[in-house]
Amino acid sequence: MSAVQEVVTEAPAIEAVPKRAMTLGYGTSLIILGLLILAPMFVKHFITFQLTMLLIYGLAVLALNILTGGSGQFSLGQSAFYAVGAYTSAILMEHAGMNYALTLPISGIICFGFGFLFGQPALRLSGVYLALATFALATAMPQLLKLGYFEHWTGGVQGLVVTKPDAPFGLPISQDTWLYYFTLVVTIAIYIFSVNLLKSRSGRAFMAIRDNEIAASAMGIDVALYKTLAFGVSAGITGVAGGLGAIAVQFVAPDSYTITLAISLFLGMVVGGVGWLPGSIVGSAFIIFVPNIAEGISKGLSGAVFGVLLFLVIFLVPHGARQVAIVAQQLIGKFKK
Amino acid sequence: MELFTNQILAGIATGAIYACMALAVVMIYQAIDHLNFAQGEMAMFSTFVSWQLMQWGVPYWGAFVLTLIFSFAGGIAIERLLFKPLAKAPILTNVAGFIALYAIINSVAGLIWDFTIKQYPTPFGSSPFLGSQLISTHQAGMIGVTLLLLLALFFFFRFTRMGLAMRAAASLPESARLVGINTSWMIALGWGMAAAIGSIAGMMIAPVVFLEPNMMLGVLIYGFAAAVLGGLTSPFGAVVGGFLMGIFENLVGTYIPGVGNELKLPIALALIVTVLVVKPAGLFGRPIVKRV
């Protein structure tokens, strides 16, 4: 209300996470990988399916993490990219009869393009304004998918049913288990890609933009290019996750991809620790299992229980799983001495 | 032309709802620098409290005042208990806190008052206003209340010590502390005021959209959009944004063929994004100059 222009020395929205702190050491990674490989041998089919969803949401959270934790941009529109990926895979499989594995790169590329284009107008916006723009995208997407013009392809409100792939080469494992391992391989590939991306020249450019945009541009970083690139990469990974999700759930419908999904992914990122890639899987576990636990504790008050649990987590560890990992690391370090 | 004027009038009538909510959104944004996602649910809860008071036989205006006091105290309590400990946590953690609060309030209200739709009384009556079928006296009253509220806020922030202190605490907390302002309590006060304004918005909106735990979801989205459109730093902009939002939405629904109720919101949001791309700080917002 004053006529004076506000001058603010703005702290970066996201805390600076050093590059090395964004990943795990080799030993820990291998142990987790081993656990993930062995897990389906000891559990029921339904739990295998849940583990598959855990990996898929983990990928989507990872994608958001690259965007927010890496380049400092915030998005509530991830559900839209997820939807585009899911529909691309589903349409290619059902209408064009394509192999499920081949549809994933196509979903990824289409979503990359979509995200890159969306990144262009988003360049002008930051903070809450960017949140609103991405939010608009997320609310528009289910409505667009329901439109009559595309009904022949998308199946309108009814959605599309996708057939679940069998294990190839006559392997003696069930469809669920096969899909789990398939998802695991894709997840690992994308995880390694993301880690290397953040270590590369582009990754350093993302982080420079996150920490101080003006300083980054002064150092010769093409801010516009790298910001849109971050959007594109994030959307591309989310698209692959969406494609995998469509295959795993065997069904796509507009109402599965509402703003609720985008909010869940956001919560997953916060719980896992913003900017810490391995945290994505922890965050994904939170958004998959905690609502079920809440429902188990009280049917009528499940929302309240979920809220209280979420509050507990952010009170105890405001920096998410990353904080737990750092504390654990220090403890182990002391123990070794 | 007749149709056009009518649609604009109807747009202003719905716009009043959004303006009310947007005002509450801007209020809390001024105090704490975040968008509070639980704002709509807080307003809904307050509205339920006033409804309960009326069920117990308290007259409308008595319930109105009691609810204002309750909401003010409730807002302060939420800040002290839940968000003060998070003041040092990252921004995104705070946003997660808002989402948690949203889930809690929504589910508790559903448990206490269940999810059936309830009638809510209006103090202004609902006969046609000045012979127009499109605006009822309630809607006219609501527009009046919104404008009054805006005026009161303007005077509060402009001419009182407390208002000045709140503005100082929000824009430059460190310097404000140095001149002896208790910034932490200013934030709590901001929460209280935002909750009270939200409860007024809730009590004005409830006769139109009916009372139920999810009544605020749609309204809050439009309220946010209106606040952002008008510029988050300007209460006046928020009100203008609210009315524009209502008018946009109605005109789009009338004149663009094939746009049903479902596409109204996406198109309105797309328009806002377009406006933001041209004017990134909103229509009436002050651009924030960053120091390197």
Could you give a quick summary of the protein structure above?
The complex is a heterodimer of chains A (337) and B (292). In chain A, 71% of the residues lie in helices and 2% in strands.
What would you note in describing this structure?
The complex is a heterodimer of chains A (337) and B (292). Chain A has 337 residues and is an all-alpha fold. Chain A is 71% helix and 2% strand. Chain A has a domain at 20-164 and 172-257. Chain A contains 14 helices and 3 strands. In chain A, α2 packs across α11 (259-272) and α12 runs antiparallel to α13. Residues 1-13 of chain A have low confidence and may be disordered. Helices cover 74% and strands 3% of the residues of chain B. Chain B has helices spanning 2-32, 39-55, 60-83, 91-113, 137-159, 161-171, 173-178, 183-209, 216-230, 235-255, 261-278; strands at 128-129, 132-136, 289-290. Chain B is globular and about 60 Å long. The N and C termini of chain B lie far apart (52 Å). The mean pLDDT of chain B is 83. Chains A and B meet through β1, α5, α11 and α13 of A and α4, α5, α9, α11 and β3 of B. β1 (7-8) of chain A pairs parallel with β3 of chain B.
